[in-house]
Amino acid sequence: MSDLEPRILALLDAGDLPGAATEALRGYGPQILGYLNAVLRNEDDAHDVFSQFAEDLWKGLGGFRRESSVRTWSFRLAWHAASRWARDPYRKRGRPMLTGEASRIAQEVRSTMSTFAPGGRADKLSKLRESLEPEEQTLLILRVDKGMAWEDVALVLHSDGAPASPAALRKRFERLKEKLGKLAREQGLIE
């Protein structure tokens, strides 16, 4: 997948927005869906938010300013889609996707993903992660599971009113590790 980012950028440079969006969704979609499953803890909800993310990516890629990688931008779109979903009092009502191509590709990604394997790493950590706030889960997933740089994590978690600084996130991450260690000891997962 190391050549994914240059392929997407080349398609953008060539003016092929549908091709760039398709590459981004197919290439980064499984990571994004896994992240949404971990944060939302419900496969149906994660699929709904993933559909919204896919639509946002499809519609927004033309305005991508290249201030970060497409991967980082995609996680930011997913974080914002999840945040909007959590704030939506009417989220239980169904609403059709407006972009048929995005919907088709999102379904393609969802159908190739196995979410939580019993006994797998996600299953073993699920008890600990359930106790975390969505922003704490996002910080943990992006930094540990996805190996993102602090600057990229700050870009994902940036909100219009409260920019996140890499230094503040590192400090918050240290506190989060202490919290997880305490919870793991309390639950008998570590000595």
SSE topology sketch:
Layout: H1 4-13, H2 17-40, H3 43-60, H4 70-87, H5 100-112, H6 121-130, H7 134-145, H8 150-157, H9 166-186
Which terms summarize this structure?
mainly alpha, 9 helices, 191 residues, Arc Repressor Mutant, subunit A, 2 domains, globular
The tally of structural domains comes to 2
Structural class: mainly alpha
Average pLDDT metric: 82
Assess the beta-strand content as a share of residues. Answer: under 5%
Quick take:
The protein is mainly alpha-helical and 191 residues long. Helices cover 70% and strands 0% of the residues.
Overview of this structure, please?
Helices cover 70% and strands 0% of the residues. The protein contains 9 helices and no strands. Helix 4 runs parallel beside helix 8 (150-157) and helix 8 (150-157) packs across helix 9. The protein is globular and about 55 Å long. It is an all-alpha fold. The protein folds into 2 domains: 1-115, no CATH class; 116-191, Arc Repressor Mutant, subunit A (Orthogonal Bundle). The chain has helices at residues 4-13, 17-40, 43-60, 70-87, 100-112, 121-130, 134-145, 150-157, 166-186.
